[in-house]
UniProtKB/TrEMBL annotation:
The keyword 4Fe-4S does not apply. Its EC number is 1.14.99.29. Pathway: Protein modification; eIF5A hypusination. Binds 2 Fe(2+) ions per subunit. This is Deoxyhypusine hydroxylase. SMART domains: EZ_HEAT (SM00567). Catalyzes the hydroxylation of the N(6)-(4-aminobutyl)-L-lysine intermediate to form hypusine, an essential post-translational modification only found in mature eIF-5A factor. Residues 210-236 are annotated as: Disordered. The keyword Electron transport does not apply. GO terms for molecular function: deoxyhypusine monooxygenase activity; metal ion binding. Fe cation 1 binds at residues 123-124, 156-157. Keywords: Hypusine biosynthesis, Iron, Metal-binding, Monooxygenase, Oxidoreductase, Repeat.
Amino acid sequence: MIPDPSWKDDLGASEVFDLDVEVNLTRVEGQVFDSPTLAPVVASLMVCLALLQANVAQPRAVPEAELRDWGAKIRDPSVPLVERAHAMWGLRHAREALATRLLAAYVTDVVPPSPAANALLQHEAAYCLGQRGDVWAVAPLEAALRDTRHEAIVRHEAAEALAALASAPGANISHIKALLTEFLTSDAVAVAETCEVGLGRIAWLQQANKTPDPDADRAEAEFPNTVDPSPAFPPGTPRSIADLRAVLLSPNRPLFERYQALFSLRNSAVASAVGAGGDDHKEAIIEALSASLAAPGSALLRHEVAFILGQLGICRTGPALIERLEDTQEAPMVRHESAMALGEVAGKAQDDDEAAGESSLAKRAREVLLAGCQDPEPLVRDSCALALDMADYVASNERFQFAEVPKC
């Protein structure tokens, strides 16, 4: 998956977590300030934040011609890859039903060896279909899952998108569950494992009387409009960072439990950004996530770890991401996701003038990504190209929106 750039336009926990900033808007909201000097400043900041959030939450109507232009662009191999990806995100966030149809057509109508086929973009189209929450997409996603002409990463993403749509209004959960069960024994390991995790998510969705989880709510606010493939462990089960690390690194534990451990760590990282836990706690989270990039037994899990690191944008995980990307024995899907996360980290390190040594990390990360643009594996090569564009976006003070996401 390409990390959704839309949430990068807000002040986020990723910034606070990595920079150890003491004041952020989520902490000042609702506080009472006695200082007559500070109060107007805080009020102004809250107004700005409200305007930003309103702008993100309310996309403008997109004309049909513009939507069709994006749809044509994503399947045109003569268009630069970065422009095709930008058009993809325009369709991802457009509210019109036609956007769903255009994304679906790219997944179902274009298959290898067509020159328009691209594993990175088509797996991203499947991801977007799951995230949009339109149950109309179930049929084309099923078709993509069944089509063995697609690379495994595309079929994996179709399965994950189906599981994501299980929580959408009007979803036929029984049908989706039957589909995922059918492919539990797929010869493509990533597909089979995705179905295993997806069935775990559906079982969780069907549980009654779930315990409220403040950390999960905070993470949902930090990464809006994102459907996670797995929940965290329920809050009633106390687990230390060391316990979560052990579950993640254990190949003998059920894969869904390892995913739950990963998202528990992700949520703990977000909570740490707003004051929960001290420096030792934060360092333990960083170490656990970095170590999990080499977790044994499941390339699918390792690729999800890399995606989470891209979400969080923690600069200190850069060396671990570089190691994964440069390991030519690693699964391409893991190297792909490591490249995308490294683009986030490289841009953030370049933009961070205060953190000691981050400029050298940014330089090293860009060197690795530039080298990756010549990688013989197409998925890795394309990912490095998009990661460099993402790094430019994150580091830029001029560009407000990475992709052609429609806004008012």
